[in-house]
Design a protein that fits this description.
Elements lengths: L1 H32 L2 H24 L4 H29 L10 H111 L1
Length: 214
């Protein structure tokens, strides 16, 4: 998940920088030609740039550090767009339709573009650091996994051994109880047999005694 998340952030970051460059390129074309298609292309690139900033904010909604980085990036983009708007105004105010290429204005545009690039790099670097930290945490968990599996296996073997011992003890006690019951039944049968013989002897004695008395 986190690998894909970092890839998404880097992809949006690259698209955002490309969109900002497209906005600047479109403004240069408009400043030189006053062709409205360049201005339309600029507005489209401006909208897409801010939309990509919102995408970055959404992807990093749970990261306060990245949220602060993205907020700083948004400020730099605002400055860049304000500069490009000033270029439009200057070009449209020129009767000849030619954009006066002042070195300080060109330098200012380059500085604003570089500022955006550097802040995007900070966001990308932080995202890569997070990925490395998460991978180290995952590796740490993988390192202790064999020991954990061995521990749980030993517990399982211990429980299985205890269960087997309990079954063996139960069977032994059951056999002993069955043997005791069988012995008691044999003794009871023997006593009944002897009592039966004794009863017959008493009957014979009573018959003889009755005959003698008569």
């Amino acid at each position: 998940y986190w690998v894909q998340h970092t890839k998404d952030v880097l992809q949006v970051s690259d698209e955002l920088y490309a969109s900002a460059l497209e906005a600047e390129s479109s403004i240069r074309g408009y400043a030189l030609t006053l062709d409205s298609s360049f201005k339309e292309s600029f507005e489209s690139a401006r909208y897409r740039t801010y939309d990509l900033v919102d995408s970055l904010r959404y992807l990093s909604v749970d990261n306060k550090v990245q949220q602060a980085n993205i907020l700083s990036l948004r400020s730099s983009i605002d400055h860049k767009m304000q500069h490009l708007d000033s270029v439009i105004n200057l070009a449209e105010s020129n009767p000849a339709g030619r954009y006066p290429t002042r070195p300080e204005r060109i330098r200012k545009g380059m500085e604003l573009g570089e500022d955006i690039r550097q802040k995007l790099q900070v966001i990308n670097d932080r995202e890569n650091e997070l990925l490395l930290e998460r991978n180290r945490g995952l590796q740490s968990n993988l390192d202790i996994l064999p020991g954990f599996l061995l521990f749980t296996t030993l517990i399982g073997i211990g429980i299985a051994g205890l269960s087997l011992y309990t079954v063996i003890q139960y069977n032994r006690h059951r056999k002993q109880a069955q043997q005791a019951i069988q012995t008691y039944q044999d003794q009871l049968t023997e006593q009944i047999h002897r009592l039966h013989i004794s009863n017959k002897e008493l009957e014979q004695f009573a018959f003889v005694a009755s005959h003698d008395l008569q």
